């Protein structure tokens, strides 16, 4: 017992792994920078620590590559990973269903449709320096979530089954509409396909600064509902008997998780697997208690996406592979291996 | 019971689901330390009532007060501190450990921004001790047996540290050993820890043996509310459940019990034969051998009497329950001349005498003598020869001799009570 201490222990271990990986990932790329130099450059940006560090004898080009090109991408990938895994934990918990992922209620199809419209019909107009595609993807994701949610809630209650079904139905329709547009706009085809496959090539500090605080706030708010989420997995009626405001908690968590997923999708496109499988892997390690599962899965999601994105941009250098392909090709066999090896009953 | 604090007050409670009235004008009080069982057929509104009191369901009309406060003013956590529900079963979506499951019962006491304190662990530990699940605190809930799982659910409810327990058929899918274990736990919680208990039991006898009061619910209304002794009868069970039962008394606990009465004749098509209501039938009783035929003929509308039976004999319970006239004798005493004469009077005024497969000793030998006199005087006698007379003769051949004489003198011999119907 003592869930608090266990949570802190596991989260710190994962954070240390993440920091090590940040340094390793930042040193890898077309221009090779040593691990030591990379570490020094990164440390020089940390307030308080930079006082003790002298980077003047380092190559200024390396400093720019790391600080302006690699780090924004690394941090964006970490935060997208965190967002996807957190949303995955929440959706799986709410639906009591191992198939649930951040896109289960249509966020991805909505975002893809929005992005397609943005790509095809509107050009050049950005808002506050964010590209049209990102804005339209976010709008598409939010509109779909809202629609699915309103279809599924009647008389103050949200029906989980209706939520899943209307999500699937609406996704199918939106995907069809996206394909329809693609037929007529063949010259935009590759752009659309690349966006849908997901990637972090357009990362910048600016993008990160807008997305990260929102994701952090939403994740922290949701974090206070993890005890409720544990109990909701016993069923709505039992949860209510144990004093959980079932409908309210479900609504709050649904909205939070949908927003988190929508933010992630709008900057990265559709990156599969991370949100679905990271929570499963962590459940095998730390158990099903959401109070531990949620923070650890979040950090692990960051680790998974950082590793995948580093592979995506380096294995076929100078060519880049959409990171969604890596997450699935490398991640799925690993997950299947874990499933077979542990033979634990996850659900 | 009066003078104790009212724990639950329900006033003019109405509840409808999809325009169908599920509860209709329900009013009752439950005082501290009461143990009240709600009985009623499926769909009579039992679970709805429990769900309304625990505020799992809302949208009712009327008033529900728990601990002197209107539940409309209470939030779910406040209610969960006062009322703990024990459901039939729980099926968690994930494989939590036993300790994690029980800790969920502390939810009402832990603030959203807080964490489990020492007190919470102490209460959880106590709840696991009471339900004997401490040895497997770290095992996965999903790997436990049905009875063990139900103990965990019970511990979860106990962790709520509430003064009221609502039991919603908590033992209905458990084996008898677990049922008894749980009943003992409920009784000790009720008596030692002064917990107020409202229970739904599938099993009427479980309710009768253990609760202080019974509420009979029929089609959303309270049919009757009172002690089992006062309100459970053949008639009340018939009108609430529509079933034929035998109401007897448990010799060990002295409490009444209910046992179903099956009437195979109904399915054998014999019911098509019209019963002659004016046909008077006298049955020789003893050791319960007469009960089946007594019940059968009574249910077909014949005018039935029985004798001579000893007090404490099952046949006497049956006769009393069916409200048919009988001749009785003090327990374990030989039949006196007074009783024998009374019996002969019944025989004389009857059209048919039935002799079931009673065990004969010197004590009730005179019953056989009475039958012999009846057949000698030309009465119609039917003998149910289900069991060889030699095996039930404890008089050293005397009874067998007389029995064979009765048959030789023209008694009709049948092999079971169902065949009696055709011979009347």
Describe the structure.
- The complex is a heterodimer of chains A (347) and B (424).
- Chain A is mostly helical and 347 residues long.
- Chain A has 14 helices and 2 strands.
- The longest helix of chain A is centred in the N-terminal third of the chain and has 36 residues, at 60-95.
- Chain A is globular and about 65 Å long.
- Chain B is an alpha/beta fold and 424 residues long.
- Chain B has 16 helices and 18 strands.
- In chain B, helix 15 (398-408) links the parallel strand 17 and strand 18.
- The interface between A and B is medium-sized, with 31 and 39 residues.
SSE topology sketch:
The complex is a heterodimer of chains A (347) and B (424).
Chain A: H1 3-27, H2 35-43, H3 60-95, H4 107-121, H5 132-152, E1 153-154, E2 157-158, H6 160-184, H7 189-197, H8 205-223, H9 226-232, H10 236-241, H11 246-268, H12 274-286, H13 290-314, H14 323-342
Antiparallel strand pairs in A: 1-2
Helix pairs in contact in A: 1-2, 1-3, 1-13, 3-8, 3-11, 3-12, 3-13, 4-5, 4-6, 4-7, 4-11, 5-6, 5-11, 8-11, 12-13, 12-14, 13-14
Chain B: E1 6-17, E2 20-31, E3 35-39, H1 46-53, E4 61-66, E5 69-70, H2 76-82, E6 83-86, H3 98-103, H4 118-130, H5 146-159, E7 164-168, H6 176-191, E8 196-200, H7 204-210, E9 213-218, E10 221-226, H8 228-231, H9 234-241, E11 245-249, E12 256-260, H10 264-267, E13 280-284, H11 291-299, E14 303-310, H12 314-322, E15 326-329, H13 337-348, E16 352-355, H14 365-376, E17 380-384, H15 398-408, E18 412-414, H16 417-423
Parallel strand pairs in B: 3-8, 3-9, 6-7, 7-8, 13-14, 13-16, 14-15, 16-17, 17-18
Antiparallel strand pairs in B: 1-2, 1-4, 4-5, 9-10, 11-12
Helix pairs in contact in B: 4-5, 11-12, 11-16, 13-14, 14-15
Q: What can be said about this structure in brief?
A:
The complex is a heterodimer of chains A (347) and B (424). Chain A has 347 residues and is mainly alpha-helical.
CATH architecture of chain A: Orthogonal Bundle
CATH homologous superfamily annotation of the largest domain in chain B: P-loop containing nucleotide triphosphate hydrolases
User: What is the name of the CATH topology of the largest domain in chain B?
Assistant: Rossmann fold
Mean pLDDT across all amino acids of chain B? 88
Cα end-to-end separation of chain A: 21 Å
Helix content of chain B: 25-40%
What is the number of independent domains of chain B?
A: 2
CATH homology superfamily of chain A: ABC transporter involved in vitamin B12 uptake, BtuC
Examine the coordinates and then state which fold CATH places here, giving the name of the CATH topology of chain A. ABC transporter involved in vitamin B12 uptake, BtuC
Share in β-strands of chain A: under 5%
